[in-house]
Amino acid sequence: MGSQGGFGQSKEFLDLVKSIGEARSKAEEDRIVLNEIETLKRRISEPDIPKRKMKEYIIRLVYVEMLGHDASFGYIHAVKMTHDDNLVLKRTGYLAVTLFLNEDHDLIILIVNTIQKDLKSDNYLIVCAALNAVCKLINEETIPAVLPQVVELLGHSKEAVRRKAIMALHRFYQKSPSSVQHLVSNFRKRLCDNDPGVMGATLCPLFDLITVDVNSYKDLVISFVSILKQVAERRLPKSYDYHQMPAPFIQIRLLKILALLGSGDKQASENMYTVVGDIFRKCDSSSNIGNAVLYECICCVSSIYANPKLIESAADVIARFLKSDSHNLKYMGIDALGRLIKTSPEIAEQHQLAVIDCLEDPDDTLKRKTFELLYKMTKSSNVEVIVDRMIDYMISINDNHYKTEIASRCVELAEQFAPSNHWFIQTMNKVFEHAGDLVNIKVAHNLMRLIAEGFGEDDDNADSQLRSSAVESYLRIIGEPKLPSVFLQVICWVLGEYGTADGKVSASYITGKLCDVAEAYSNDETIKAYAITALMKIYAFEIAAGRKVDMLPECQSLIEELSASHSTDLQQRAYELEAVTGLDAYAVEIIMPADASCEDIEIDKNLSFLNGYVEQALEKGAQPYIPENERSGMLSVSNFRSQDQHEASIHGLRFEAYELPKPSVPSRPPVSLASATELAPVPEPSYPRVTQNVASVPSVSSADPSDLRLRLDGVQKKWGRPTYTPSETSTSTSTSEKTVNGVTKVDAARDTIYSKVRDTAYDSRKPDAEIPLEKQKLAASLFGGSSKTERRASTTSHRAGKASSHVIEKPQASKASDKTVAEKTIVQPPPDLLDLGEPAVLSRSPSIDPFKQLEGLLDSPQVPSNSNHGAAGANKDSDIMGLHAETAGSGPSSGIVNPVPTNKNDLDLLSGLSNSTTNNALGGTPTAHSTQVSKGPNTKDSLEKDSLVRQMGVTPTSPNPNLFKDLLG
Amino acid sequence: MIHFVLLISRQGKVRLTKWYSPYTQKERSKVIRELSGVILTRGPKLCNFVEWRGYKVVYKRYASLYFCMCIDQEDNELEILEIIHHYVEILDRYFGSVCELDLIFNFHKAYYILDEILIAGELQESSKKTVARLIAAQDSLVETAKEQASSISNIIAQATK
């Protein structure tokens, strides 16, 4: 062992690790690794390498691969090592292949045989190693090769083997559900396994199976509930306790399963109420794992058939999470709130300030979670504020993935809840402008369709208003540089279709703009196509209206350029435009009817208009057409090939290059139309007739379930608003403004028209949207019902007394929501009343800011109330759970970090000295020894490690002084 | 399901990677680069979670080492934090006050231990005792194998004298 260091590897390897550790840049590290790869390549191919040496090489390969370099030259050696009889080598081989190979790697076929053999081994450790490999390496095709043996292992005497076998089957299920479908009875049997580990593992495949088919497992509800009950009552062996919680990981899995089984099933849910309630009560909310279980309980409660008591417990927990200082718990609280508001939307209200705090938190994760919550609670009353916030955030981030998501959410909310056409267009413009390249093209198509179809059922006036406001804003935007392509397509289409419709803008102005666009984005063919088609529409409408068409010179040159374009599509469009401008008004009106993009066109599927032509041809001696399905006897080439193709598809291999045209050719619409819809690269077709086709054939859009379609039913209801006329708006606004101070009185009598007033509230609030909203304001606008601000302004003197009374009422409340609750208790009347009062105040834009005043008032009373809940320490706990080395230093924290100090001395958590220990250990000064004494039995360990490493010459240098720091310290 | 486990030092050095979902070597490097950029720059008081490409990454810092796990949207983040902690506790028990250096030089052992805790992206055993017993069994087997090997080589050495 002369060459070996204390860690069981050769000096050479230790040196490698050391030099990598000391590398100061990625480039240096890469250079070292590349050197190592060269060395290994040379060494590993030498003949007669001793096996131990080979094992080390393999581990070095793993290391190289872990650092992100390609070690594929050595894969085959790792595979060979799995064949070895020696378990140590075999285990190394398996470890390496599971790390190296993905399930689709070619070498897997060489391992399957070994795995088969090893699964039958007498030594359970070999079986375990093989099962580990099975989980990673076996793919859909090789499942049948090992399945029988894995199933057999479910009855193995060692629980570790049973457990891994279950997990392997779970993996098989994920890869190919049909492969394990017949094994359900085995899973049910394993659920009653004596070993809790095996039982816990069985929950994984069962969860998957139940997700797919809930109804077949309803009979297990009772079993799951009783298992959960036993777990919660600590019937499992002590070794499954985790931080004093009884088997929390198993509890969580069970709760997940119960959530599935109880969803929408009253009877099943009733069985669960008691046990879930018990867990709510028993859970230790001061530990992280306790909170994990509590969170899972909330998920379960919000999924199963609603039970008021459980919902109340869940709401309490959420309140605790949101008031916590820990960001983690806030995050979970927001998430849980999002789940619970589905069943009881009123809960959100009491947490409004906490939610807004999270929204304004510098932590992006928390912010995004909060946006998700807002998205879930958007209604027509708060859509403006929420979408505005979302867009602001969208503009501020760079993460394209999230940008796409939030953009599509904005679009969805805007389509669903938009309060006015104008707002809708403005919002869509902003989304397109800032995330245009990221949004789905369907969103753009939806927008075009929406503008074309209009919102109101009968209200043509509103539709044309919408269109002219769209045209107006687009004409303004079109000049801006670097607009996203998708957005320009929308702009061009709308300008073409409706640019001249209201007669406000002259055709030459619009055509000029369109030509500019086509020129500015000259390398984007789609835009050019949209632009030229828009030009054609405008000229057509002009001609049809009997006006004289003066084609602009730039337009002329554009047409000339496009007629010579390499793109046939552009060419065709250009020639069509030329042809259309040469026709008379009557013909043009038939070709290009104004605003007809939504009308249906009838397709003559029988192609009857070709009959004359066909007959002529037949008379001239042409062969009659025989449909393909009647051609079976003939050895026509196409038939032969289609048979071929059919066979090929059975075998999963195809040898030919082209798809044959489907036999449905005869039922196609006329060729010209078909080609326009299906072949043109531009989704927007060249004639309005075709547009109708696209829009009116339902299968086009409904084929894709994930498609961002408009929910038109909802839209119409929301936007129809026939009772909401402008005159009413003005009157109700004025009333609300007049009654600022006596709102409540007036309101009491107003319930009936409340909803209308509510609508007005936005309008009056709109001007404020630009200035940064204060929290209360925001809360009011988000949660619709809240802000008693106005009221409080006038009754500030009552505040203190009220606040204390609230404390009595709700002893659990703590500082985070003090403001809210205080507001709450002062004003008891239903929230809708206040909804009116609040915006009224906002719209006043008072010279003295009432919020500022309030804030001052709120601050001082907050302190005593804080001390009232003296147990505020609880808030800190969760933060400490973060276990950052820095925070672990303080006394109380380590107490929490290690709730069971008695039986975990070996973990050495109680030592609050780890920081100094580490630093000293590094310096190697005598103080190190004195401080380390307090670490108990581990002092020796650390010192040994230290000296050992020093012997080997691995002295950590400045780049990483923390190498010696105990991870748990 | 856990899609992968990463151990990254504060300097951005990779200490351990385990992939439960298929990623090519190129994707792996990209993931590590992207995530270490995101995670290492986060402040100490923020959430231990990061939303990333439609997944969530739960991370926790121990001394200078970040333990990261990538999970699905619907998974329970707090639970994953505890799974990380569970792993660290077991490492601690095994190495005796585990420090980063232990993992640097014994990364293969860290892999073996991880293989007893997670399998196919799920927690397979939540009892520390059971895991410890299995690892001990494997280690003792390694010992006996070594002994055997040396005794055989002794015999051979003697026989060939």
Tell me about this structure:
The complex is a heterodimer of chains A (969) and B (161). With 969 residues, chain A is mostly helical. Chain A is globular and about 95 Å long. The relative contact order of chain A is 0.05. By secondary structure, chain B is of the alpha+beta class. The radius of gyration of chain B is 19 Å and the shape is elongated. At the A-B interface, helix 1, helix 3, helix 5, helix 7 and helix 9 of A face strand 2, helix 1, strand 3, strand 4 and helix 2 of B.
Q: By helix and strand content of chain A, what is the structural category?
A: mainly alpha
The largest sheet of chain A, given as strand count, sense and whether it forms a barrel, is:
none
Structural class, judged by helices and strands of chain B? alpha+beta
Please describe the biggest sheet of chain B, giving its number of strands, its sense, and whether it closes into a barrel.
5 strands, antiparallel
Tell me the quaternary state.
heterodimer
| Parts with pLDDT < 50 across at least 5 consecutive residues of chain B | none
Q: What is the number of E strands of chain A? A: 0
Protein name (chain B): AP-1 complex subunit sigma-1
Summarize the structure.
Chain B: This is AP-1 complex subunit sigma-1. The complex is a heterodimer of chains A (969) and B (161). By secondary structure, chain A is mostly helical.
